[in-house]
Design goal:
Layout lengths: L9 E4 L9 H12 L4 H13 L5 H12 L6 H21 L6 H11 L2 E8 H10 L8 E5 L3 H10 L7 E5 L2 H9 L3 E5 L8 H8 L3 E2 L2 H17 L18
Parallel strand pairs: 1-2, 1-4, 2-3, 4-5, 5-6
Length: 247
């Protein structure tokens, strides 16, 4: 089930797969950058990337160089791979589509309270791309690596932005873990996720979920119509589980 946006005063969004439809594009760039070491090595990096959504590119390439290439002390190679990935991703992010409903949802949430982008992507790169696309106006802050998501959220908590009236929208296990660790509600968005087992995961963990931010907005409109008609809004059930069918 999807909780109503009006319940919250702070909104935290992941970037890839939530605001920008960029997961597949980034996966392709990871493969391209690593392909100089052979197809099998590139596939291992892609598998690792998909299994660790929300983790920074620095951490992923450090793992690749150490575990796949067997060169754990080669910091120069890590930097070279990160730079190559950044050049490819910047072009991809500037041209990729937004996820369904993202722009409208950001505008609505910004009317209700401060919005923050908390991503595993490179912070400087994110700020440049969001400024170029005119999306930065919706956010109080745009945050990314090299800081981890946990450290970014800790900073927001210290400044008094997080708590029971905060909702986080994400498409990975890490996004849910971070929201839970800081006492925030979480909504999983499934349409663009690269989690192969997301259906079983949200069901077993009783996680609120929707396909995308367009569905989050549609749910709020249904809530408002139900309230006007004197019915029950479509929000989290008393037991926290969802009775809707999986796509």
């Amino acid at each position: 089930m999807i909780p109503s946006l009006d319940r919250f005063r702070t909104f935290v969004f992941d970037c890839d797969g939530v605001v920008l439809d960029s997961n597949e594009l980034k996966t392709r760039v990871f493969h391209e950058v690593a392909s100089r070491f052979g197809g099998a090595a590139a596939e291992r990096l892609v598998d690792h990337h998909r299994a660790h959504g929300g983790v920074s590119r620095h951490e992923k390439f450090r793992w690749f160089v150490a575990e796949v290439l067997g060169r754990p002390r080669d910091a120069g190679l890590v930097d070279d791979l990160v730079d190559g990935f950044g050049r490819g991703v910047r072009r991809a992010l500037e041209g990729c589509p937004t996820c369904p409903g993202a722009v409208e949802a950001l505008a609505r949430c910004a009317e209700l309270g401060p919005c923050f982008l908390v991503s595993g992507g490179l912070e400087e790169e994110l700020r440049q791309v969001f400024r170029a696309r005119g999306l930065d106006r919706h956010f109080r802050g745009i945050h990314g690596s090299p800081e981890t998501k946990h450290r970014i959220m800790a900073g927001l908590a210290t400044r008094g932005h997080l708590g029971g009236e905060t909702v986080c929208f994400g498409d990975s296990r890490l996004d849910r873990e971070v929201a839970r660790d800081f006492g925030c509600e979480f909504v999983f968005l499934a349409r663009c996720t690269e989690m192969a087992d997301w259906k079983a995961w949200v069901e077993s963990e009783a996680i609120d979920w929707g396909l995308d931010l367009a569905e989050v907005l549609a749910a709020q409109r249904r809530d408002l119509r139900a309230e006007v008609a004197g019915g029950e809004p479509w929000g989290r059930s008393a037991g926290g589980s969802s009775s809707r069918e999986m796509p």
